[in-house]
TrEMBL record:
One of its GO terms (molecular function) is phosphoglycerate mutase activity. It comes from the Archaea. Coiled coil: none annotated. SUPFAM superfamilies: Phosphoglycerate mutase-like. It comes from Candidatus Nanohalobium constans. This is 2,3-bisphosphoglycerate-dependent phosphoglycerate mutase. The gene is gpmA.
Length: 162
């Protein structure tokens, strides 16, 4: 299965993270990515978050593939913490979360893993899933979670064999 992390977002502190849009840079990189790649896929699964749906829709159109939105692919729910303006603090919270810590009021890791496994069970056919960085870092087992999160770029494809 192939997973794609959405492209760069525009930070919108007063807006829930799930509603953030792609930044200008993210839109341009997404358009270039879609234009320069041929997608031999039948289904594009996507998180229901705006930044993922925008990318998934473009890929599905180009590939003439079915588009399936699912909350199973949404990013870890961080709404209990809200927007973290200080970047260093945010990085520390993510690292702590990926290492099993509980410094932030974020979605329980076990619940997130259950969503991932439920998605894997429902996914079918030759498909691509558009999702998020922390989600992938927690669920793709062949990588060290924190290192993977630091190295995972916007618009990067990750292969996962299950």
């Amino acid at each position: 299965m192939k997973f794609l992390r959405h492209f760069q977002t525009e930070l919108e502190p007063g807006t829930p993270v799930s509603e953030w849009r792609l930044s200008e840079k993210g839109r341009k990189e997404m358009q270039k990515f879609v234009r320069e790649n041929n997608f031999d896929i039948d289904i594009v699964y996507t998180s229901t978050e705006r930044k993922a749906v925008k990318t998934a829709r473009r890929i599905a159109e180009k590939a003439d593939a079915e588009l399936v939105k699912t909350e199973l692919l949404c990013e870890v729910d961080r709404s209990g913490e809200g927007f973290v303006e200080d970047h260093d603090r945010y990085v520390n919270l993510v690292e702590d979360y990926l290492n099993g810590g509980k410094k932030a009021d974020w979605e329980d890791q076990e619940e997130m893993r259950e969503r991932f496994h439920e998605f894997i069970e429902m996914a079918e056919g030759n498909s691509l899933a558009v999702t998020h960085g922390i989600f992938l870092s927690l669920n793709v087992p062949e990588y060290e979670k924190v290192d993977f999160w630091h190295e995972l770029g916007f618009g990067q494809i990750v292969h996962y064999d299950f």
